[in-house]
């Protein structure tokens, strides 16, 4: 099982330096990361939305160690919102944020993350769009859900993410569905112990279907985060059984993965949102993409041994 090994490497400074210096890294990172600056990503947003797709934008960077870095992360999102304002795309271009990037793991991190993310959510609402709080490892989730609940008091469109591989998620899904929340469901991409998470792929898939059914039958807005053709088809069937119209749920996939499927779903009338990450601190995000699919790792290794 290479996935857990790669996820462990995502926390290694030594591996970070090695991967960053490898000759093929830039080519492969470019498959998953839309650029390093907001100037580079804005044209991609224009192109993506012109094809009938929607986007959620993630400024990558998680392992911050100072309050100054947390403030810089907040400011990076505010700059992004300022650039999106001119595009006038509304909810077709939203944002995803990781609260670790806003200082959640620092001393007083819960309050710091809330105070940093609130102006981002306010600015997003001012241009007619919204923010989704990404899920990270299980130790951060109580804080994330509490911040989500607090933000929804003033900005009910604020979304959050749940991870199917965690035992707790069915209960979280029932609560969020009853509250009418926007919820993205994903399988999960962090190294979690067997005491809190399913380890077997088949069990994770079964949990994903159960949880998606809860969301579809609830009062919220489900966002199906998956590239798995079988889960996509099941999502469509669950939506049909729940009597949901095409604009009452959406699919989400990662930039650079199954791009033909993005277009196919949009052509069928589905809302299809592309999770588009950009920024210079790409390492943790990139390693999780490798861990999710062995073919991604093979592509990377081949590129590493190919001369530029």
TrEMBL record:
User: Which InterPro entries has this protein been placed in?
Assistant: FAD-linked_oxidoreductase-like (IPR029041), PRODH_bac_arc (IPR008219), Proline_DH_dom (IPR002872), Proline_oxidase (IPR015659)
**Reactions performed catalytically:** L-proline + a quinone = (S)-1-pyrroline-5-carboxylate + a quinol + H(+)
Cross-referenced Pfam families, in alphabetical order? Answer: Pro_dh
Q: Hey, which pathway is this one from?
A: Amino-acid degradation; L-proline degradation into L-glutamate; L-glutamate from L-proline: step 1/2
UniProt keywords (A-Z) are: FAD, Flavoprotein, Nucleotide-binding, Oxidoreductase, Proline metabolism
Record bears the keyword Transmembrane helix: no
Q: Which residues form the Proline dehydrogenase domain?
A: 46-298
Which cofactors must be present for this protein to function? FAD
Record keyword Nucleotide-binding present: yes
EC number(s) stated in the UniProt entry for this protein: 1.5.5.2
Protein name in the entry: proline dehydrogenase
The species this protein belongs to is Streptomyces lavendulocolor
